[in-house]
Amino acid sequence: MSSYKILLVTKDQRGRTYKVFAQQLHDYFQNSIELLNDFDGNYESVADLILASSPEVIKGRELPQDKLVVARRTINIKKLKELVALPAGTKCLVVNNMIETARETINILRNLGFDLDMIPYSPRNKRTMREIQEIHDVKVAITPAGLELVPPGIEQVIDIGIRPIDFSTIVEIGVRLNLDVEEANIYVAEIVQLSRGLFNTLTYVNQLNHQLDAILNMVNDGIVATDDKGHIIQVNKAARHILDVHLSDKQMIGKPVQEVFPKLKIFDKSKKNQENTLYSTGGKHLVFNKRQIEIGQGKQGVMTVFQDVTKIQKLEQDLRKELQEKGLSAQYSLKHIIGKSKPLEETIKILKKIAKTDRTVLIVGESGTGKELFAHSIHNLSNRRNGPFLPVNFAGLPESLAESELFGYEDGAFTGAKKGGKPGLFELAHNGTIFLDEIGDASPSLQALLLRVLQEQQVMRVGGHRVIPVNVRVIAATNQNLKEMVEQGWFRKDLYYRLFVLPLRVPPLRERKEDIPLLIDHFIKEYCSTQVHLEQDVMDKLINYNWPGNIRELISVVQYMTSVMEGNQITTNDLPEQFKEISDHIDFSEEQYIQLLEKEGDLIDFYIVLSCLKQAKQNRVGVGRGKIVHYSRKAGFPLTDQQVRRRMEILRELGLIHSGTRGQGSRITTIGSLILDVIKTKLEHISASCQT
Ligand SMILES: Nc1ncnc2c1ncn2[C@@H]1O[C@H](COP(=O)(O)OP(=O)(O)OP(=O)(O)O)[C@@H](O)[C@H]1O
């Protein structure tokens, strides 16, 4: 059988298009055709069929219309892989040497179902500034073998190769020449191959989708994802449950989120990024996080993740109530700290920072400055605020009891021990805070035990054998100069450094005089239901006073004044003793001092206090109440913390002792030492006369 002659006309008869077409025709028609190259001679009349690669290549040529077929072009299926990977909506240039061809390529790609934002481009085409700007932003270019035409600056160039002859053109040639397109199965095979690839990809995507669904449905947090237009992409099971929606996927996916959840502010479009925000709706409390997410080029969706914390909040409330009922919670917070002075504000600023950490705090400050208030506030601002808060005052803690109080005991640990044992304060403070007040008064053996708990974060009950791990934050406080005590050997150095992690100094009242009127006013209101007028003279005196007992003393002064005032007026007559001139006492004789002391209490009590202070003076250290309590027990005349406080107040008023200004404790004065000797002689006399 002789073969049919096809004249193939392309733009460049030696070019790539010619070669691709020639190969394609041979593939389909094998030896049934012979190709004539327009370049080699004038074959128009001998050709059985003339195939032009585009209308442009035959422009101006007179060709026999009955033989002419203008090829329709398609895309090389094998080259589509890279295009498939582009996310829908991707902006891309479609580059060709002629703008018409670029448009044609766009049409073909659209018909094949590519949902891309395609801009035709040819370097020959003149553009407006706007178009130039638009092209400038594009990152992807697609070109049918026109790599050299792609403008610079494009990040990804996809060469889809020379566009081959469309299958319908092949069929047309076959019909015109009466040839079988037996090799059409090549084309079909390619399509099958591509569809298989696509099918595999789709199956994989489907699988991934299922896996994602399964994962999203497994988590307990509600998840709702929306696209850039606020349309729902995903709603997981937990979200339906939490939001109490009973709609199918079909009723939600693709719908505007605000239409599906009209009342829910958490999907408010204006706020794209929100973290741990609490939102309450219909008796439910939700905590939600919202994040913007990239989906496709430049498009942004929003992912909202939320939890139902109603139960947790209820549990927390119950726990707090239970702790409050048991007296294990911190009752004070920053709002209870009265004052606006700079030094106080500075202290509060540091307090807030300290509260956020979980480290040990050492609060230092004179007696009555509000250290306990600050400790409560730290706990209430910390992450442990819902946990217990346990205060322990070492000044009032008898040593015999201290160990079992702090660490608990096992059943039968000692006679009188409760059946079943008892947890110690450290155990009770688990997940909370323990406040070790007047830490300077802890005995050496207690100091050793405390050091161990701080180091090991575990306790062992008295009489027990097992260690109990405890997670407790320690806040210690002292009105003594611990550093000096360490130097004098009264306080363990290692414990001091364990405690001295975050020091917080509470300033004495005389360093924040601006707070005095506020505090006076606050406490007057607390004690009097009616309006009270306080003379300016009185206020001046109160401001000028140096408040050795700080706010505790101020409270007593207000209590005193409001008790003795006439009507609702506080005058200078209502000021207590300490505001009268001290010189009143200066001329007392030794005997008068003794009489005054005897009027206030037992001489032996004053003797104990003074001799403890005298000893401390010889050791060159200041001493706090706790040490005196301790000393009194050792001396065999035990005094309570309250008793010591009262005795010290009297001694102070008489000028026999002096209270330090910066937490150094108290010191005996020269007259104090003198009077101590007088008391000693007096007591010896009494004792001698008792014996005879
Ligand atoms: N800034 C303040 N505003 C209101 N009340 C205060 C303030 N500071 C202290 N107080 C009150 O003063 C009293 C004494 O305070 P607190 O017991 O905390 O002192 P402290 O420094 O722990 O004393 P000590 O060292 O003697 O134990 C408490 O009744 C406390 O509520």
UniProtKB/TrEMBL annotation:
Superkingdom of source? Bacteria
Please provide the record's keywords in A-Z order.
ATP-binding, Nucleotide-binding
UniProt KW Nucleotide-binding keyword:
yes
By its UniProt entry, which Pfam families does this protein fall under? Answer: AAA_lid_14, PAS_8, Sigma54_activat
The keyword Nucleotide-binding is annotated on this UniProt entry: yes
Please state every residue range assigned to the domain named Sigma-54 factor interaction: 337-563
Concerning NCBIfam families, the annotation shows:
sensory_box
PANTHER family (alphabetical): C4-DICARBOXYLATE TRANSPORT TRANSCRIPTIONAL REGULATORY PROTEIN DCTD (PTHR32071:SF57), TRANSCRIPTIONAL REGULATORY PROTEIN (PTHR32071)
Q: What is this protein called?
A: PAS domain S-box-containing protein
Q: Which organism is it from?
A: Caldalkalibacillus uzonensis
